[in-house]
Amino acid sequence: MSSDSEPRLRVIWTDPVTGRKGYAVIDRMVNGLAGGGTRMRSGVTMEEVERLARTMSYKNGAFNLPGGGAKGGVDIDPHDPEARGVLSRYVRAMRPLYRNGWGTAEDLGISQELLSEVFAEQGVGMTVQAMLDRSGDPMAAGRRVSQGLAINVEGIGLADCIGGYGVAEAAAAAADYKRWDISKLRAVVQGFGSMGGSSARYLARLGARVVGVVDVNGAVTNPDGLDVERLLKSRNTLGEIDRSALRPGDGELPKERWLEIDADIVVPAAVADAITAENSAAIKARMVVEAANIPTTDDAQRLLHERGTVVIPDYVANGGANAWWWWTLLGVLEADAEQSFAHVSRVMRETVRHMLELADARHMTPRAAANELSMENLDRLAARLGEDASETPLEPVRA
Ligand SMILES: NC(=O)c1ccc[n+]([C@@H]2O[C@H](COP(=O)([O-])OP(=O)(O)OC[C@H]3O[C@@H](n4cnc5c(N)ncnc54)[C@H](O)[C@@H]3O)[C@@H](O)[C@H]2O)c1
């Protein structure tokens, strides 16, 4: 597939009650399947959803997962009292896609709990029902996924931890490759929800000093290091920090000024296009580890690369979350936190090292190297399994 090829399908939906819009894009199918989250954000556009669906194709390719990429977006603020109803009607309208090839999960502005609830009420089954139906043993696969989703890791669901754990492992792999000691590095994380919260937790566990975290209401800073666990405990379901949990010594900044926080590792884990050509000039960090999808504009990536900042691309850095779903439903992983962390760590570290080696050898950006590796994998899978659904049940693909 070339990088400028057209997506397989674009859908625009209008809510009959509120007139709000919803979008869905299937970028590519492999083996009759496409995977990608469903998000809720005021101002989301078809163009954003299309770029995110393309990113999901790359993400599946990077980790050798047998599916193309897809994405859904509902244009409403998740705080809006109408939001739940709009989401529910969107899911009903998208039922033919969700049942016939598009497997989805939580994304920006939607918790997995809410999405699972809405899917059940609309009779779609699980959010990855499309994959379960092709798994050969939907009951067993569904049981593994449900049991996996029920695992709680020190106050956070495994599905909400594993993505950020992978982000921290990606940072560690890049630091190892560069021979930097991660325990001497400081990190700032924009976004403190599923991805940002767990990225901060596991970076801190690796010994990095988390000197800033940012939610939609502003940045919380401390040059000596924040008490991440305390802040995690104070969060509401939308990833917002209760400011009464701040300790003496913690400071606050407007959220737009987050890149002024002096750090070695910058983790954008909230919205698209957070790092632009203009604001990237403020970044002095050694690496940007993209936990969010498409958080850095193309121009900003180029400028950062020219200045020697290592940018670990979104679909590699945050791919642990998506890969965990696939591995669990395919039976590569049991519903087991320890096994899940070990597997994500091993595959993430290998993938990041391989990407950085290729980038150095060919004098290209890490993203260009990852694009090549990822599309090679996906093209190989599509050649072997076909693009459209076959009768053959899914089989685990070697990670
Ligand atoms: N959840 C997943 O499994 C997953 C997996 C891979 C990638 N992602 C990507 O990670 C990003 C975040 O998703 P999430 O699921 O963690 O979302 P979330 O809704 O759980 O959390 C979002 C966080 O970002 C903050 N935020 C929102 N707007 C902001 C702004 N303008 N400035 C600063 N902070 C802001 C919110 O307050 C919250 O803390 C998205 O790009 C998503 O596509 C999510």
Label this structure with key terms.
single chain, Rossmann fold, 15% strand, binds nicotinamide-adenine-dinucleotide, 399 residues, 15 strands, 6-stranded mixed sheet, 14 helices, alpha/beta, 7-stranded mixed sheet
- Summing up helix and strand content along with how strands pair, one would put the structural category as alpha/beta
Shape: globular
Count of discrete alpha- or pi-helical segments spanning 4 or more residues? 14
Task: Give the N-to-C terminal Cα separation.
Answer: 21 Å
- Please trace the helix and strand order, writing H or E for each element: EEEEHEHHEHHHEEHEHEEHEEEHEHHHH
CA-atom Rg in angstroms: 20 Å
CATH architecture of the largest domain: 3-Layer(aba) Sandwich
Top CATH class of the largest domain: Alpha Beta
Helix proportion range = 40-55%
CATH topology grouping of the largest domain: Rossmann fold
Please give the largest β-sheet. Answer: 7 strands, mixed
Q: Count structural domains.
A: 2
pLDDT average, as an integer? 95
Q: Bound small molecules, which ones?
A: nicotinamide-adenine-dinucleotide
